Amino acid sequence: MEEEFGEFESGPFKGKKIKFASSTGVDMLIDISEDLMKRIFGFDSGEYLITDESSLQDFTGVDDMELLDIQTKIREVYDLDVSDIEPGNLVEIFMRIHRNKYGEPS
Fold first, then answer.
1. What three-state secondary structure class fits 17?
2. pTM of the prediction?
């Protein structure tokens, strides 16, 4: 579900509406998402915006890290390979961390 926020009142986007993708998946795994954002990128809660459509690609360039650097850091921190998750979707990564830590839901 998308969330809609007002519309631009001026400039080249005048009249265009802002819509954010759902964050239901991120919200369900909030503890893992906050932990990863802190340990991998150094961001505290409230210093970033992620949705269910966010990916590792969105964070390339943070601390000059490229995708491979981010995947390597995740492997080192969580002992987990996420390089097969296309296109590096964060919710999929959060779910894999959850399964690795707690097992499959019964």
1. strand
2. 0.82
